[in-house]
């Protein structure tokens, strides 16, 4: 009898091992294809369990930097950047509080915040120009290239802005994944949310250079559209998206962000999710922004 039981247990163990191997291979192939990189199978299994990919280059870089921690966030910085640490932690504290207010609790896997020391080093990881901050959900990295200036107030405010913006990307993406929202969330919503939490007390959207220059939100949904318009510099699409989020929250309350995300999983389009949650379509939102420019 005991012999039979042990054979059953052994068979179950072998079956589980085979399933794990097959699953790891599929995850490995998916990660390689989606992120255009070469991974070992152990790396794929590590990503699956930790939700964080550490490249060899990243490990070397972090070993060269000093390290601090704030809750689930590991902060890496150069010895000449110690004065920025308190500003960084203060901004993270604000960002966690503000995100909790808008989207409630969200999973908080470990994330690395790296203060890069020069533009060349930053671009090697960010792979994006014309910015001083980025967030990679695959790598779980918030990358910041500090602005160096003798003006302490300006340096503090730029760090505050960049940290709050990129952390808000992290928080919102964790919430979206936890809610199992399978439909794509447009770039204008993701960026507008992060900008809103960075500039909650900003001035109205009424500058002369943007008056009458609203970009249709249909043209701000995909990453490729966003990148093209951002580099073209036709209009501050970050500011437009921020003002759209600000208007929606001002009109419908903090809970509207979660309401929209819930609808987004069921709706045929994100515009439909907005309409179901607020009664507004894209034309209504664009007209409201144009009106606010002239107030």
Structural features, described:
- This protein is of the alpha/beta class and 295 residues long.
- The chain has 3 domains: 2-50; 56-178, Glutaredoxin, CATH 3.40.30.160; 187-293, no CATH class.
- Helices cover 60% and strands 8% of the residues.
- It has 12 helices and 5 strands.
- It has a 5-stranded mixed sheet with strand order 1-2-3-5-4, sandwiched between helices.
- β4 (133-136) and β5 form a beta hairpin.
- α10 (256-264) crosses α11 (270-278).
- It starts with a helix and ends with a helix.
Task: Quickly describe the structure.
It contains twelve helices and five strands. The protein has helices at residues 2-35, 41-50, 56-64, 82-103, 119-126, 152-178, 187-198, 223-232, 237-252, 256-264, 270-278, 282-293, and strands at residues 66-70, 73-77, 111-115, 133-136, 141-144. A five-stranded mixed β-sheet has the order 1-2-3-5-4, with helices on both faces.
Q: Which short descriptors sum up this protein?
A:
3 domains, 12 helices, five-stranded mixed beta sheet, 5 strands, alpha/beta, 295 residues, Glutaredoxin, 60% helix
Q: In angstroms, what separates the terminal alpha carbons?
A: 84 Å
Q: Give, in order, the helices and strands.
A: HHHEEHEHEEHHHHHHH
Fourth-tier CATH superfamily name of the largest domain: Collagenase ColT, N-terminal domain
- Major beta sheet, strand line-up: 1-2-3-5-4
How would you describe the shape? globular
Number of helices: 12
Tally of strands: 5
- Using only C-alpha atoms, the radius of gyration works out to 22 Å
CATH class of the largest domain: Alpha Beta
The CATH topology of the largest domain corresponds to Glutaredoxin
What's the structural domain tally? Answer: 3
Q: How would a crystallographer describe the biggest sheet?
A: 5 strands, mixed
Corresponding CATH architecture of the largest domain? 3-Layer(aba) Sandwich
Poorly predicted segments? 27-52, 201-211
Secondary-structure-based class equals: alpha/beta
Strand content: 5-15%
Mean pLDDT: 82
The percentage helix is 55-70%
């Amino acid at each position: 009898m005991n012999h039979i039981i042990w054979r059953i247990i052994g068979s179950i163990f072998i079956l589980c091992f085979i399933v794990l191997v097959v699953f790891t291979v599929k995850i490995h192939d998916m990660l390689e294809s989606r992120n255009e990189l070469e991974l070992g199978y152990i790396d794929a299994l590590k990503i699956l369990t930790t939700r964080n990919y550490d490249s060899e280059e990243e490990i070397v870089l972090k070993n060269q930097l000093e390290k601090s921690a704030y809750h689930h966030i590991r902060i890496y910085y150069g010895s000449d950047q110690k004065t920025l640490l308190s500003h960084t932690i203060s901004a993270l504290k604000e960002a966690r509080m503000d995100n909790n207010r808008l989207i409630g609790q969200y999973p908080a896997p470990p994330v690395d915040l790296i203060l890069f020391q020069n533009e060349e080093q930053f671009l090697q990881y960010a792979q994006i120009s014309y910015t001083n901050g980025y967030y990679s959900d695959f790598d779980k990295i918030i990358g910041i290239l500090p602005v160096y200036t003798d003006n302490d107030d300006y340096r503090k405010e730029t760090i505050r802005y960049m940290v709050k913006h990129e952390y808000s990307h992290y928080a919102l993406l964790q919430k979206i994944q936890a809610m199992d929202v399978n439909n794509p969330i447009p770039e204008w919503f993701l960026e507008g949310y992060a900008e809103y939490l960075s500039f909650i007390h900003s001035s109205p959207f009424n500058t002369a250079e943007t008056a009458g220059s609203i970009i249709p939100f249909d043209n701000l949904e995909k990453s490729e559209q966003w990148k093209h318009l951002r580099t073209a510099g036709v209009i501050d699409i970050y500011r437009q998206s921020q003002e759209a989020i600000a208007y929606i929250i001002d009109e419908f309350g903090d809970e509207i962000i979660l309401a929209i995300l819930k609808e987004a999983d069921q709706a045929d389009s994100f515009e439909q999710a907005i309409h179901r949650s607020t009664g507004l379509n894209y034309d209504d939102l664009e007209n409201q922004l144009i009106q606010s420019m002239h107030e």
